[in-house]
Amino acid sequence: MSVAVHHRQNVPALQESLKELAHLMRNIQALRHETQREIHAAVLAKHCALKEQEKDKKISSETKHELKKCFWRSIDSCENEENALRMSLDVIKNIRLANSARSGFLSGLGRTQRGEVVRKSALMMNLKTLARQLPLWVPTDHEKPPPLCGAVPAPPGHEAEPHSMVAAFVKNDDDEEWILARVRHYDRTSGRYQVDDIDDEHPETLTLLRKHIIPLPLMRANPITNPEAFFPKGTVVNALYPQTTCFYRGLVDEIPHGPQEGYSVQFEDENYPGGFAPALVVEQLYVIECVL
Q1: Could you tell me if 209 and 269 lie in one domain?
Q2: What's the confidence (pLDDT) of residue 122?
Q3: Residue 244: which of 260, 267, 211 has the closest Cα?
Q4: Which portions of the chain are predicted below pLDDT 50?
Q5: How do beta strands 192-197 and 176-187 pair?
Q6: Domain hosting residue 235, numbered range
Q7: Are 284 and 263 in contact (CB under 8 A)?
Q8: H-helix or E-strand spanning residue 5
Q9: Are 285 and 232 a contacting pair, CB within 8 Å?
Q10: So what's the pLDDT on residue 184?
């Protein structure tokens, strides 16, 4: 199938998703106004109840009943708004995936739609965009972060899906290193992955053992709501060195302050006192456990 035909087939679905998102945004705006009205009514009801208590030394059953109704209506409105926001996040995620597939973004970060190798600067921008567009995990109540959310590791037996991003351990004649790669296929019989080096100036499919593959996060975490989904300060990690596609060992100097921010990482460097260079910022997506 030609690229042009593939694009045309994806356009209607993308347009429908955009229409759905626009409808959800309008609905969220209306729900937010409703929530604000209900909360305001609940605050007024509470104020009236407190005045009644101050005057009569008690609160009547009618006032208690009205106060409870106001609070329950507020809770219902908040939940309706939350559900609409979550639906919007799902639609946004699908739009991003569809747009990436349409442009060939996920299938070849290091190549153009015509198969040409992109410039290094363009590749770095693609990698940054990919990290920033990683879906944000939003918990409900006290829900714990799922596997592959931030620093939460993959569950036992996890199989990275085709096109997903991984760190791959490769050995060359004179060196061995962890590189950024994209999964092509996993063979359960042999327990080996076929992956493509993202920085593929010289395209080559690598076949690697499962133990030499580390899946990258599938979701970003929010340090405000889920600090447990981050590597603590002082943790030794493998992180993608800025402006490269290789992972190197480093020390977490500071965790992100917000969901869109990256880690502050000090990479190993024997030329500096203490063995670590000044900290550099690395996106959440590219900070993983350190495998010695």
Answers
A1: no
A2: 83
A3: 267
A4: 1-7, 106-107
A5: antiparallel
A6: 227-289
A7: yes
A8: helix 3-56
A9: no
A10: 92
Q: Residue 30: left if φ>0, alpha if ψ -120 to 50, beta else—which one?
A: alpha
- β-pairing, 192-197 vs 280-282, is unpaired
Separation between Cα atoms, residue 65 and residue 53, nearest integer Å = 14
For residue range 59-108, list pLDDT tens digits in order.
898 989 999 999 999 999 998 998 898 888 888 877 776 666 555 554 45
* Same structural domain, 97 and 32: yes
Q: Rounded to whole angstroms, how far apart are CA atoms 106 and 117? A: 14
Amino acid at 262: G
The total domain count for the chain is 3
Predicted local distance difference test score (pLDDT) of residue 4? 46
Residue 104 has a pLDDT of 52
pLDDT the model gives residue 257: 95
Length of the chain in residues, anyone?
Answer: 292
pLDDT of residue 5: 44
CATH number, domain containing residue 283: 2.30.30.140
8 A C-beta contact, residue 148 and residue 218: yes
Strands in the chain per DSSP E: 165-171, 176-187, 192-197, 205-209, 213-215, 236-240, 246-254, 263-267, 280-282, 287-289
In a domain, 95, yes or no: yes
Q: Distance between the two ends of the chain, CA-based, in angstroms?
A: 44
Scanning the structure block, which residue is given the tokens 């499962």?
Answer: 210
Within a domain: 120: no
Tell whether 53 is covered by a domain.
yes
